[in-house]
Amino acid sequence: MRLSLRFLVPLLIALAIAAYATVPLIDAQILRWFSRDLDVRANLISNTVQEPVSELLLTGNRLRLEQFFGRLTSDERLYAVGVCATDGERPFATRDFPDELDCAALRNLVDAPGALLRPPRGLLHVAVRSIEDAGPRALLALVHDMTFAERRSEETKRYMVVFFVALSAVVALITVVIAQLSWRGWITGLRALIRGEGLLRPAGGFVVPELAPIARDVRQLVRDLEAHYRPRDGDQMVWTQQTLRDVLKGELHGNDVIVVSNREPYIHVRGPDGIHVQRPASGLVTALEPVMRACSGTWIAHGSGSADRETVDRNDHVAVPPNDPAYRIRRIWLTPDEESGYYSGFANEGLWPLCHIAHVRPTFRSSDFEYYRRVNQKFAEAVVAESQRDDPIVLIQDYHFALLPRMVRKMLPKATIITFWHIPWPNPEAFAICPWRNELLDGMLGSSILGFHTQFHCNNFLDTVDRTLEARVDRETMIVVRDGRPTQVRRYPISIEWPPAALEGQPEVPEARRSIRARIGVPADHKIVVGIDRLDYTKGILERFSAVARLLEIEPKWAGNFTFVQIAAPTRGMIGDYRDYALRVKALAHEINTHYPRAKYPPIVLLAEHHESDAVYEYLRGADACFVSSLHDGMNLVAKEFIAARDDEHGVLILSQFAGASRELPEALIVNPYDADQCAAALHLALSMPADEQRARMRLMRALVRDFNVYRWAGRMLMDAAVMRQRNRLAPSTEAPDTIHAR
Ligand code: G6P
Question: pLDDT tens, 214-225?
Fold first, then answer.
């Protein structure tokens, strides 16, 4: 459109100038033509009436002369006639003869081309001819009405304007069509050039010959841009859902994006009043869901809801979010044995405790690993089935799918596979106890890019590969090369969407404060600290409760004036360690509450049930502080959600030093969850922190979470994938796909 305007505006201006200059010229020319016609007509009339007029003049018969003139002027063009016999002042003339024409004036015009007069009644043509038979000074003046010439001129002008407008429209249309066609040709050629595709015919020679001279320059430009890409991305880009969409549209235009995770973002559950949709309490889902809303791809996940089968189409697809579909889920069905061996067994009794230092021993069973392998294969086949092309972008999530990258690589060698490990990666000694360590590492190295939350976890992974496998580990470029194929290992700290969707429609903070206090039955000025977790032994919930108990010992004034509200979503209930943990958490809460029988309000309120994100955000907004005490955590998004929820810039975050988030949020009160005294002191500090200090800390943390949001997390991975794909296209065909060069 803008391109068309660029052509059209100058063209229309040129045509308007042409029209403006031409019309007066035509006007003058038309008058000249008519004047000349009237001269000829005047000669004719004068020759014809010479005789009768001279006779009448000589006989002096004025009455007959008047009648004769009357007959002459009955011609509609001949406006008036007059004669001068001598040099008298006034001519003898018809009634309309112009007053300003006396005989002296007429004499100056004798036998000359007609003169134009413009009295108030309109344009007149005056031709004067001598009547020699009536005397040497006799003359005849013929006055013609020329207003008809003006009317013609007006009509001609109108036709000219219409003609120029029509001409402009036709010329503009032709110009725009030609401009668009040639522009498209150029753009297509340039795109092909930049992609390195379709530029050269197999037999040599350029498909778009005009572009041949600039091919080299454009390629150089692409390389220069790539070189500048990374610093711009990391430091300068402001990431929003739209930026992410632009990256997908611009850098990865037309590419398939397929996400794979065990947990699905929307679970259909059958309840007493029909089917309803549940959102799981999973950090992974919290992070990825807004990304998928921006990408509109396919999310492959285990269909675990009781009504999941009833809500898919015949290809096992369901469009989500249910009220405003933006992408689709492909559900994978697992048998109870598969679910128990792959999910509960190998993933959650083996890898989960192996990667988290939470002092729960991992359990490894070969039957579990067999199911893990089988389920990974099932998902790999689904990836191939869902992919529309042979080089999709596949985002594999987490420890449930360590074998999947290699399996997908075998079936789709040209795929760009990004694997993100959402949990910590242990040191090589800890990892070495896994009997299938080689298979797991080899499986992960099927990825093009492998992401962790922190540099520490990246380093642990490189150390582990170095100690375990035959592979070249380049610590400077963070690239592992296995069987000639590289995997880039990078740090991508995960985050949340900004602003979070759950914040929409939330009551103001004072209202949230009132409502959560009313719900748990405490007064309006009662202090509340909140904890929000899955009921998982890595989250340090017991340690948190011990810190509350210690606070009440050190600072008894808080007993009855402060309550710790723990929202704990039940999780992985089929695993013994989780059931035991849930029981121990409930028992400790009860024990602490009964230790303070005289306190008016209980120190701990434990809400061990699933809460939807709206309810969670209300607690986060209404509390005075939030306590995240993970014993070990990849990132911990509750910490970031608390910050995002506090648009009032109040509230204090107490954060475990063993959560990845502590690397990004030094303004939180950072604690060692194993140190009850330190945690109790942090609780006291949080409950008594002045508003100014709360605001200063919260502002810094909000700026960080706003800028380092989940769109940046996903965007950086996808931009890295785009650069990798571009390089693969530009690389000589002798190099293996996915080869990336040291930056
Ligand atoms: C947490 C972890 C994720 C993990 C998820 C699984 O969010 O941070 O890494 O994938 O739990 O939870 P689930 O309920 O699906 O077992």
Answer: 666 766 666 556
